Amino acid sequence: MKRGILCALAMCSFVLAFGQQRPQYTQYIFNNYLLNPALSGIENYTDVKAGYRNQWHGLEGAPVTTYFSINAPIGKDFIYGNATSTPGAGNNPMSRSYVQDYMASEPHHGIGFHAVIDKTGPLSRTDLNATYAYHLGLTSTLNVAVGVAVGLSKIDLDVSKITLENSVDPAIIADQNNRMKPDASAGIWVYGPRYFAGISAQQLLGQSISFTNDNKYDQGKQVPHIFATAGIKLFLGEDIAAIPSIMVKYVSPAPTSLDLNMKFAFRDRFWIGGSYRKNDSFSALAGFNVSSLFGLSYSYDFTTSELRSVSDGSHEIVLSLLLNNRYKVTCPQKTF
User: Residue 272: which domain range?
Assistant: First the structure.
């Protein structure tokens, strides 16, 4: 075999141990849509986000992730004037008074699309997914949504980044260094004026991965990823809210991953927060809702694992656009 393949496999084994066949996000609370298709169309505007994450900066070949997502509701009863719409510019969805007047969403559909590119060493993965969700108000303040995602996953191996011990390697065939596989995800999301909870599963099809036609080396496989998350809004004043949340990620046979997050929102203009990922990192987060069109957030992970000796930490930045925003809200009403 080749040293390069062994190094690549070592990196992949380490990545898998932390549940990262799929990318990791510190700002999951800012874009749960990437993890759960049930959030498609949850707001009554078109939600567009673009993100970049440089994980374990300073470590050669460490994961670098970029993504683009867009989702929007379908249904005139929801999009146009109804009990869930903010009545005019300037009303703050983060205020206590908004919560007191909250009404469950009108039944409606949501659609969306997201593209994620994740590079780790010689391996590069591109995921393209279309999403659909149906939202229903169960009571005057309780909503439930179910969603699915279908798409394609393309995995490439950059042979130029690998040093071969032998010119001919049975584990890799020159014209077999990329693979295209179908993919599917599903999820459910429950939300109200002061809480949310959801569970989703990605990579449900469990596709095999190899870069040869020889079954002897056909040992790679995509495994399901389970994400469970929940959060609650606690008011510290009329316009200041504390939002603790938790995410549990399960990927067999890797150890269960746990993220604890605390976000403080000041009116609908800006927020700060912190996060802890078990056996991995502490994080600092901040975001600004610049206007009813544009928002920006940033996070930095302080690595606490053994990688801290070779890594400067992880950077993540997310740009948000609120298109077709009829009521000129400056922050999300249903995802907080």
Answer: 3-323
